[in-house]
Design brief:
The protein is α/β, with parallel strands linked by helices and 460 residues long. The chain has helices at 74-83, 101-112, 131-142, 163-176, 187-199, 206-210, 214-231, 243-253, 265-269, 293-304, 320-323, 343-352, 359-373; strands at 3-11, 16-24, 27-32, 41-44, 49-52, 54-59, 64-65, 68-69, 86-94, 119-125, 148-152, 179-183, 235-237, 259-264, 310-312, 391-401, 420-430, 433-437, 440-441. It contains 13 helices and 19 strands. Bound molecules: N-(aminocarbonyl)-beta-alanine (URP) and zinc ion (3 copies). Residues 58, 60, 314, 316 line the site of one zinc ion. It comes from Chitinophaga agri.
C-alpha cells in the first residue's frame, strides 16, 4: 500500500521545509508540494515535525553480563525503541574469551532473528584477539555486514583486551574496511581502586563512582586515539562522558585525525549527585559513571563543535532485583541503565527546546550520523528518495511525564521517573509500515530486519 504524508515540516540533518512524502514498497519515492495519489492512505502531518527514524547505535539486549542478562530482549527492547521513535538499533555481540566470533554471532542471531520488532544490526565485541580471531575479521565485514569491532579497555578478566591485542586488531580491521570502537577507561587503575575501596569497607554505589575518576577515561581515550592514529584505523569512542576524554580527541584533531565520539543521553542530563541516594543509587550504576556539571557543558559544546558526533543510550537495563546482586558490594551491581525509549524525546526536550542544539543538529546526532558512521547511509538516517521509509511524526509541543508505569521497556523502574518532557513521538513508520500510532505498536514480533552494513572509511 502507498502512503502519502501530507503537510508536515520535514527536517533532515541539513534541511527544513514543508512538503508531502509518498511512500511505496517501504521506501520514500517522492517528496514535493501538494502531491496527490488517489489510492494512497493519507497521513495528515499538519503541525508535526517529520523526521527520520532514530538510530541508537549502542544498546545491549538480552546480554549476558556480570552474572545475569540485561532485561530487555530483542523483542521488548526494539518495541520500546519504536515507541520512542528509534527505528534501528545496533546491538553488541560479545565474543567469549577462548571462543570464536562465529560462535558468538550464531548465539546472537538465535536470540534476535525472528523476535526483533524494529530493525537491528550488530557490532562484534572482540574480547580475545588471537590468530583465529584475526582470520575471522574479513568474513565478518565482507559476508556478515558487521563492520565495527568493539573493544573494552576495562572489565579486566571478562571483556578487556590489552594494547598488544588492540594494535593487532586495529591493523587487521583497517585492512578490510572496518572500524574499531572502544569502551575507553583504564581497567587496571579501576581494578586497583575497586579493590582498595572494598578493602576499606566502602561498599556502597558511591564507590562505584569514586573508583572510575575522570583520569581513567582521559588516559584511555588518549591511548586509544594514539593507537588509532599509529595504525591508521578508523576509531570511535563509545559513551564518552567527560572533559578530559574529549580533550584527548580535541588534541588529535590538531594532527588532522578524526576519531568519532559518542556520548549518551544520561551523560548530558544526569550528574554524579545521583550517587548520594544510598542503595537507590544503584539505578544509575553504569560505566563510566555519571560525571559533573562541567562535563555536561563540555559535552553539549562538543556536539556543537562537531567533536561529539552521536547521542546514543548504552541501553543496558536490569530489574531492581538484579541490581540487588550488589547490595553489599558495589562491584557486583550489574552496570547499566534503561533509556532506549526515552532518548529521542529527552534529547529534543532538553536539547532543542532549551536551545542547546538546533533541530538539524538533533537529527544529525540521533539519526544521520549513526547511519553515516556505521555504514547504513543513505538507506537509513535521512528522508530522501530511495531511502527506507523510516519516518517519525513528532509533536514538538505535547507534554508528558516519564514513568516506569507507562514505559514499554522491560524494567521495573525508570532512571528518569517524573521527568517532564516537551515533545512527543506520535506516529512511527518502519520501512513504510505504520509501526507505532496513538501509543500502540502495530507491527508484530519478528518484523524487525537485520541490517547488513557497508564498509566504512572513518569519514563523514
Ligand atoms: O554500564 C554499562 N555501560 N553497561 C553496559 C556495558 C558497557 O560498558 O557498555
Ligand atoms: Zn568455542
Ligand atoms: Zn561500555
Ligand atoms: Zn555499552
Amino acid at each position: 500500500m502507498q502512503l502519502l504524508i501530507k503537510n508536515g515540516r520535514i527536517i533532515t540533518a541539513t534541511d527544513d521545509y514543508y512538503g508531502d512524502i509518498i511512500v511505496s514498497a517501504g521506501q520514500v519515492t517522492a517528496i514535493g508540494r501538494k502531491l496527490s495519489v488517489p489510492s494512497a492512505k493519507v497521513i495528515d502531518a499538519e503541525g508535526l515535525l517529520v523526521m527520520p527514524g532514530g538510530i541508537d547505535p549502542h544498546v545491549h539486549l538480552d546480554m549476558p553480563f556480570m552474572g545475569t542478562f540485561s532485561s530487555d530482549t530483542h523483542e521488548t527492547g526494539t518495541r520500546a525503541a519504536l515507541h520512542g521513535g528509534t527505528t534501528t538499533v545496533i546491538d553488541f555481540v560479545l565474543q567469549q574469551q577462548g571462543h570464536s566470533l562465529r560462535e558468538a554471532l550464531d548465539e546472537w542471531n538465535e536470540r534476535a532473528y525472528g523476535t526483533a520488532v524494529g530493525d537491528y544490526s550488530f557490532h562484534m565485541a572482540v574480547t580475545d584477539f588471537n590468530a583465529n580471531t584475526k582470520a575471522e575479521i574479513r568474513t565478518m565485514i565482507e559476508q556478515e555486514g558487521i563492520t565495527s569491532f568493539k573493544t573494552f579497555m576495562a572489565y579486566k578478566g571478562a571483556l578487556m583486551i590489552d594494547d598488544r591485542q588492540m594494535t593487532g586488531l586495529m591493523q587487521e580491521v583497517k585492512q578490510h574496511g572496518g572500524m574499531v570502537t572502544v569502551h575507553a577507561t583504564n581497567g587496571d587503575v579501576i581494578d586497583y581502586l575497586v579493590a582498595k575501596h572494598l578493602a576499606e569497607g566502602k561498599t556502597t554505589p558511591l564507590y562505584h563512582y569514586l573508583s572510575q575518576p575522570e583520569v581513567t577515561e582521559a588516559e584511555a581515550a588518549a591511548r586509544f586515539t594514539d593507537l588509532a592514529n599509529y595504525t591508521g584505523c578508523p576509531g570511535y569512542i563509545v559513551h564518552l562522558t567527560c572533559e578530559g576524554a574529549l580533550n584527548a580527541v580535541r588534541n588529535a584533531t590538531r594532527r588532522n585525525q578524526k576519531v568519532f565520539v559518542e556520548t549518551c543521553i544520561q551523560y548530558l542530563l544526569l550528574d554524579a549527585s545521583k550517587y548520594d541516594k544510598g542503595f537507590e543509587s544503584a539505578k544509575w550504576v553504569m560505566s563510566p559513571p555519571l560525571r559533573e556539571a562541567k562535563d555536561q557543558e563540555t559535552l553539549w559544546a562538543g556536539i556543537n563543535q562537531n567533536l561529539v558526533n552521536i547521542v546514543a543510550t548504552d541501553h543496558c537495563p536490569f530489574m531492581w532485583q538484579q541490581k540487588l546482586m550488589g547490595e553489599h558490594d558495589f562491584s557486583k551491581i550489574p552496570n547499566g541503565h534503561p533509556a532506549i525509549e526515552n532518548r529521542m524525546e529527552l534529547l529534543f526536550s532538553e536539547g532543542v527546546n532549551k536551545n542547546r542544539i538546533s533541530l538539524n543538529k538533533f537529527v544529525e546526532v540521533a539519526c544521520t550520523n549513526p547511519a553515516k558512521i556505521f555504514g547504513m547511509f543513505p538507506r537509513k538516517g535521512t528522508i530522501a528518495i530511495g531511502s527506507d521509509a523510516d519516518i517519525i511524526l513528532f509533536d514538538p509541543n505535547e507534554k508528558h511525564t516519564i514513568a516506569a508505569a507507562t514505559h514499554h521497556m522491560n524494567v521495573d523502574y525508570s532512571a528518569y521517573e517524573g521527568w517532564e518532557v516537551t515533545g512527543k513521538v506520535k506516529t512511527v513508520l518502519l520501512r513504510g509500515e505504520i509501526a507505532i500510532d496513538k501509543g500502540e505498536c502495530l507491527v508484530p514480533r519478528g518484523y524487525g530486519q537485520f541490517i547488513k552494513r557497508n564498509k566504512v572509511n572513518g569519514k563523514i
